[in-house]
């Protein structure tokens, strides 16, 4: 008995409807917007705080996120932090229910272009992740907070973000992999 | 300094349930895969556009609908700091093309079996920490440029949000119908799952 939950892939439109309805629940019942990238600030600040608490307190941006004051509690692990941690669990459950044995150290497209070195791919992933979060914080949101939550509220900031992100994403992908890369994805 | 580590149990539980469902949906949609994200940027696989476009239209109709029937559903519009939005979005796009995930799908991808998403998420922590260090300079030099406050497309144009949603919905439906026809014609059934 595998049923719908055991299917390896759902229609992208069905998944989009699901995420849209999920946003009704978070906005309507929880008073919150779907988002993920602020959690990276909280986690990074908490790690820095273990070794250099004074530095965290004196950094305006980190303090605004995780340093509580007498007037305002700023918990490190809040609604969104719990959401982000459980993203991995939800995806794990979805993969397991479909009997997936997917493991990926180096994506095939990267392998074709940059070779089979794991350290090289991992360094690329670190660089990509760092740019991703620097950009998300500069723009004040990511594909969830701006892309979905902001997009559906018709926010100008979010539609500007979406345009810039898709534009450079396409440009960077073609610069890295070229037209030939399209047959290796 | 960290007098409050955890928020209230209700915030943690509702956040956790939301994350569980969101992560489940992302994996079923295929967007926890590097190949799907890069396929979107190389314009061979439009799964990302389909998922996001549908989520935006459905989400908008529901949230503006709930408000229209008088329910108290506050919006959470972010400030338009246009230079920051453009530069941030541009850097984000490059990072996403290199990593093959965005922040949310990167964390979900770890659960889906992607090993290289782990250094990707760690790199994300580094990026967030670097931004915090750069923040005073960015605040004074970047975030003030094109700062329009919490402006929306309806407030900026004076149009009803329903007109904009109708436009968005109609172009999404028309675009997806054409996209599906084009996909069927050019390369048969696309996006067959690699389980």
Give a quick set of tags describing it.
heterodimer; A: 185 residues; mainly alpha; 2 domains; 9 helices; 0% strand; B: 195 residues; two-stranded antiparallel sheet; 8 helices; 2 strands; 69% helix; globular
How would you describe this structure to a colleague?
- The complex is a heterodimer of chains A (185) and B (195).
- Chain A is mostly helical and 185 residues long.
- Chain A has helices at residues 12-28, 37-51, 53-58, 60-66, 79-97, 108-114, 118-139, 143-152, 156-177.
- Chain A has two domains: 1-103, no CATH class; 105-185, no CATH class.
- Chain A starts with 11 loop residues before the first helix and ends in an 8-residue tail after the last helix.
- The mean pLDDT of chain A is 96.
- Chain B has a two-stranded antiparallel ribbon with strand order 1-2.
- The longest helix of chain B has 27 residues, at 161-187.
- Chain B is globular, with a radius of gyration of 20 Å.
- Classes of the chains: A mainly alpha (185), B mainly alpha (195).
- At the A-B interface, α1, α2, α3, α4 and α5 of A face α1, α2, α3, β1 and α4 of B.
Secondary-structure map:
The complex is a heterodimer of chains A (185) and B (195).
Chain A: H1 12-28, H2 37-51, H3 53-58, H4 60-66, H5 79-97, H6 108-114, H7 118-139, H8 143-152, H9 156-177
Chain B: H1 9-29, H2 34-41, H3 47-68, E1 80-81, H4 82-99, H5 103-111, H6 117-141, E2 147-149, H7 153-157, H8 161-187
Antiparallel strand pairs in B: 1-2
